[in-house]
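Tutorial handout. Part one gives the primary structure; part two gives the three-dimensional structure as tokens.
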Amino acid sequence: MSSRLLITGARAPVSLDLARSARSAGYAAQLADSIPSYAARGAKLGPVMELPRPRFQFSAFAERLSEYCQTYPDALIIPTCEEVFFVSAAAARHGFGEQALVSDLGTLRSLHSKIEFPALLQSLGIRAPETTIIDEPVRTENCRDAVLKPEFSRFGSATLIRPDARECARIKPSKDHRWAMQEFIAGEEFCLWSAARDGVLTASAVYHPKWRHGQTAAYAFEAVDAPEAVDIAARLADALDYTGQIGLDLIRTENGEFVPVECNPRSVSGLHLFDCSPDLARALTGDGPAMHVTRGLRYLAPAMWAMGLPKSLMHGRYRQWRADMRSGRDVLSRDGNGWPIAGAMLDALRFAAIGVTRMRSAAGQTTDDIEWNGEPIS
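Part two.
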């Protein structure tokens, strides 16, 4: 039984909710990250442990986590962002796998890869988009009714949906930088967050990304009751004897079938829908029963004001925006503490500024030191 949780990825708002959930359940919870997080500081959840940058300083990162596990043998490490891959590799190197809510790196790769994941689904009898590997320039006429994406990518920032010839010609696939060409599946987009221990699903939430910036992650999310989608996550967890988190992007077709198109083996926004319930932390640690959320609208207030409001005015959705602001709840200003909102805005400005200097998007900069693109970890 764990009495202490180390929650890595303090830069992510979901980590704050997870820490709040753990504390309300009576666990000693601490946040950790390899970069400063003003939102985490504003949440007043105690000092944030500084970690080496896993992508660039893996050995030091692994040593630091190993030392932590030796100091606190009752601790459980829960990654929330893409450092999950490095936590898994570190656990394998130093033998603290029982103290980390992760599966082995090979399993995580099969979920993270846009090429391997559809094949995994099909092997389990779950419908998935037909997927072709692209490792050389592609004929533009083949792109007209397809979705193209790098094998290892995030936020949907590089995804091309039914691209025209000019867009298709711009991609530069190679043997070392493969792309996936997937069948386009028409329907409505949904997402799922879930967690499992030893192959058994312990928590889940299916939600509709109600407000989002382009094709990137949503900043307003509404829970729905979709047991068919939860069953897909449960089948994956069972087949893989999985321990950790599973995030799915799904399309619900006209006939009501849910078709997974991508997987993120880490935290996603659906975790906010649990409202920091102590039962969530107990479910993740195995100290309590499974927990499933089927209703609720939650949002990130800074994004709703900065992006949602202008979008609503441009597209005639102002009434909907106003109604959602009233009926939903902000996930940053829990318990009336508004400092995480200010901190999140500072974090966003910092990522944007650094991204400009390095010719990266702000979203891309958020994962610069933790992203994993299938390369060996050593």
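Part three, for discussion. The chain has a mean pLDDT of 95. DSSP finds 13 helices and 16 strands in the chain.
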